[in-house]
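Quarterly update, task 2.4: glutathione-bound model.
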Amino acid sequence: MAAHYVLHGFNPSPYSVKMRAILRYRRIPFVWHALGNPRDVAVAAGLPPVIPVLKFPDGRVMNDSTLLAYALEREHPERSIVPDDPAHAYLSDLLEDFGDEWITKMMFHYRWYYAADRAFAQDWIVTSRDPLMPAARRQAEKQAFNDRQVGRMAIVGCTEQNRPIIEDSYRVVLDTLGRHVRTIPFLFGSRPSLADFGFYGQLQILSVDPTPMMEMRDRAPDVYCWLLRLDDASGIDGAWLDPSMPLPETLTALLRHCGETYLPFLAANTRALQVGASEVSLDILGRPYAQAPFRYQGKCHDALARKLAALPVDMRRRLDPVLEETGCLRYLA
Ligand SMILES: N[C@@H](CCC(=O)N[C@@H](CS)C(=O)NCC(=O)O)C(=O)O
């Protein structure tokens, strides 16, 4: 059999469906391996215990969707998801991170907060492991998974105190992305970028779990349909936005929202990590937000700041005013 990629993941896992959509858009042949316990593949390879895990045709095994997306960029130049213009590429990285690290709070909150969502998530997860699991074991695994995830809610900031901020932010993302995709097919043009896939991963799950699904269908049907298109975009042949033109207003609105939610959180998180504080606390959207510091997001912040600092001066001349106007620059420079 010809060597091909194998993506080990789960249908209910946002980063797994993100990677699957990337591989499909990029027309990179792969097998979707989505039963059992894909985390074991990571552990056996000595990787962090997170999914998805991608096995390359030459036998290499890697995880972390952002690193994987860039590894695929190096090995497959066609149908890149990184905008050609370095300023747009930076904004795409920034919005991908917003998707991966902030929209994920919405995904986790809705999935494990409301009873209907918790019940559905348990069934979706155990049937992904084994659709024919005997009843007693199935009940025990559902309960165990539920308890583990509910027990993690506070660690990722999904608390009663933060709930109105997370839910308000979900509505802003739906409204703004809904307006965007009515005028431009994807975030940076008529072809999808890494940012689109970062949003896609989390929003695809939010479009299935019952409570946020109803909210999305009522409030932003165009986002729901956009997700269905992006799920398999292998037929899309598009173009990037013209970098000499001003950014579309809907894209600046998304950046502004990132600059008033995720980025102040990221900066406060970095400060808390630096001084060894036990809590990150700040005001977001006019309300007090608090959670314990999160090491991985310290790395995300550092990576965004380094990438910005590495851009050539002429690019910064074009990019900085956009980051300034949207309230992002002070958290990144
Ligand atoms: N930054 C990673 C995050 C991956 C991640 O957090 N995956 C979740 C599932 S969606 C996971 O494996 N969590 C660990 C666990 O549930 O034990 C990426 O982009 O791939």
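Highlight for this quarter: The chain has a mean pLDDT of 97.
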